[in-house]
Specification:
Oligomer: single chain
Order of helices and strands: HHHHH
Radius of gyration: 25 Å
Number of strands: 0
Shape: elongated
Strand content: under 5%
Length: 110
Amino acid sequence: MASSTASKSAPSDWFEAADPDDVAELLFPIEVVGDALDPSERAAYRPADWRRLVIDSAAALPAAIARIADYWRIVRTPTPTLRREGPKVGRNDPCPCGSGRKFKQCHGRT
């Protein structure tokens, strides 16, 4: 039985915790090498194309595993919301730099 710490740190189903299309794309090389593709998907490949796909997928496994780790690192720790320290400066307010000009004519220019 898994510990409660493990169950909190990892979702029980990848497809429930993240975008199913993203997860399917990330797992594709592993499914190919592990011969775990749905039979109807595999039937779409000619034998020579399938062999080439298996070789290419096997070569791509290290990068695929790194992408999976990066993906889950982002899913588990999303970017925090940035908060402004002071009030928002309006376009027609005086520029906070102290120049005496309107913000839109000073630091608000794009």
